[in-house]
Design brief:
Blueprint lengths: L1 H37 L3 H46 E5 L14 E5 L13 E5 L10 E8 L4 E5 L2 E5 L7 E2 L19 E4 L4 E5 L9 H4 L2 E2 L3 E10 L3 E2 L16 H6 L1
Antiparallel strand pairs: 1-2, 2-11, 3-4, 3-11, 4-9, 5-6, 5-8, 6-7, 9-10, 11-12
Length: 262
């Protein structure tokens, strides 16, 4: 019985040694396996580097796209600023003073360069800075050019009479093509006279009965003339006719003094 017992113990011992040996082998194999996983082949390293380069290029490409968008926006804003500052005026008309030529809420384009290389002409629809002291001072107004430098402008019962420099008689201006309605003959501003200086213009709205213009604040100097209106684009598109006020009637001027006395 003692022999069997010894054999049994030896067998158990051998079994434990075998188990330990097997565990060590498994650990070594696992370590080798982990080492094999962390160690990349040359092809894998090249693929990884290529992927990293592609990601960097993609990031650079995104940055370039954003930069181009910003550049386009900045350049566009700069061009728009320079155009509005030196070339054109883009404006909305808030009143009905120029009906029927320009209605309330219309948007229009005025060309600044028109008065850089030439002077305003009778009949021009012009944008100018208001000279009247107060809340409207230097605000942009749009009216029609009626009187030119050196002329005498006489309003008589709402009709416009012009006397050019060197002439003795007045001529009545033909305004039938643009005037909105007959000016009220009894208004004091429709019965007055202005002698224009060498650099002064007289402008009035086409809607005489609803316009605040040179009849109220006097002539406008040339340095205040900002632009000539070329067209309106909202509401509706229309190119302005700026030569409609160059005709005069051939009738003789009335006897101002006798008319006023009567």
């Amino acid at each position: 019985m003692s022999e069997n017992s010894q054999e049994t113990e030896e067998i158990k011992f051998d079994s434990e040694e075998s188990t330990v040996s097997g565990t060590d082998s498994a650990n070594k194999a696992g370590a080798k396996s982990k080492g094999a996983k962390t160690q990349m082949t040359p092809a894998e390293r090249r693929a990884k580097k290529k992927l990293e380069r592609e990601r960097k290029e993609e990031n650079k490409s995104t940055g370039r796209v954003i930069f181009e968008y910003v550049r386009v926006v900045v350049i566009g804003a700069l061009i728009a600023f320079l155009l509005c500052k030196f070339v054109i005026i883009n404006a909305e008309v808030p009143t009905g003073s120029m009906i029927p030529t320009i209605n309330r809420g219309d948007r229009m384009i005025g060309l600044r360069l028109a008065y850089t290389f030439s002077t305003p002409k009778r009949g021009d629809v012009a944008i100018f800075r208001c000279p009247e002291p107060g809340r409207d001072y230097n605000r942009l107004f749009v009216k029609r050019v009626i009187g030119l430098p050196g002329e005498t402008v006489k309003l008589y019962k709402g009709e416009v009479w012009i006397k050019s420099p060197g002439e003795d008689e007045f001529r009545r201006l033909d305004e039938t093509e643009y005037i909105y309605e007959t000016p009220k003959p009894d208004m004091s501003v429709n019965n007055d006279e202005w002698v224009l200086g060498d650099d002064e213009y007289f402008l009035m709205g086409d809607n005489r009965n609803g316009s605040h213009d040179c009849r109220y604040f006097g002539p406008v100097t040339e340095d205040r003339m900002e632009a000539k209106v070329i067209f309106k684009y909202y509401k509706g598109f229309e190119i302005f006719k700026n030569d409609v006020a160059v005709r005069f009637y051939t009738d003789e001027e009335p006897d101002w003094q006798n008319e006023q006395d009567n």
